[in-house]
Amino acid sequence: MSTPTDKHSFGTHGLWIWHGGLTPDQAARVEQLGYGTIWLGGSPEDLAPARTLLEATDRIRVATGITNIWNTDPLAIAREFADLDKDFPGRFYLGVGVGHREATQEYASPYESMVDYLDKLDEGGLPVERRVLAALGPKMLRLSADRALGAHPYLTPPAHTEYAREILGADAFLAPEHKIVLESDPETARSIGRPPVDTPYLHLRNYVANLKRLGWSDDDIADGGSDALIDALVAHGTGEQIRDQVDAHLAAGADHVAIQVLGVEDVTDVLEQLPAG
């Protein structure tokens, strides 16, 4: 029987959206459409955005994607987690990440800093199985299997999901994010998908290093990204075509895919056009 900490309780598909980008009514609609989890991006400094969406819904999981270790106090986050879990048992999960060097003045020794943050979450009583780590490379992926429920990679094609699953092993949770544009014309779709991929991610060392690890070249990454790279990172087409591209992560070993919708004001309009299930 599924439990609140069972990795399958996330459902196979979720929504990734910047925190503050979803109204309570829209969150309720995402739940009605059958999505299992809402991931809140943009490094919120506390868990108040999660509470707003939990209050507006009945069953859906809410997770941070991610809480940044540099702008939050782990003991304060652990206290907020305890309050959320009391009010909404089993429905909130903490996604934690180190962000990127270019955005954080304090950035140093990311692996060791993450270990220290996790130690403090342990001290604060936040259960290991109720947190996931933003992980791209092998060290952080192994840490996510050892010190968390699993990993929440961002800006990754299915090839990374296959790579991550090999490192994580069979039991750890794996929930990559994937961007989509509901548009069948490739040039139009790329004109929507390329800017948010290029700025900032194709100029950040950790994301560039991960893409090169997967075999993408400097030419692919330069000048806003090659068409092939953008197509690998941003699914486009009809609802059915997008669902097939997103589900390539599941075939590669993911338990769940967090879908980020680009190019629209109300993401529920797009989610309604994707096949159910």
UniProtKB/TrEMBL annotation:
Gene3D superfamilies: Luciferase-like domain. It comes from the Bacteria. One of its GO terms (molecular function) is oxidoreductase activity. InterPro entries: Bact_Lucif_Oxidored (IPR050766), Lucif-like_OxRdatse_MSMEG_4141 (IPR019922), Luciferase-like_dom (IPR011251), Luciferase-like_sf (IPR036661). Keywords: Oxidoreductase. Its EC number is 1.-.-.-. Residues 25-119 form the Luciferase-like domain. The keyword Magnesium does not apply. The keyword DNA repair does not apply. SUPFAM superfamilies: Bacterial luciferase-like. It is an enzyme of class 1 (oxidoreductase). This is LLM class F420-dependent oxidoreductase. The lineage of its organism: Bacteria, Bacillati, Actinomycetota, Actinomycetes, Mycobacteriales.
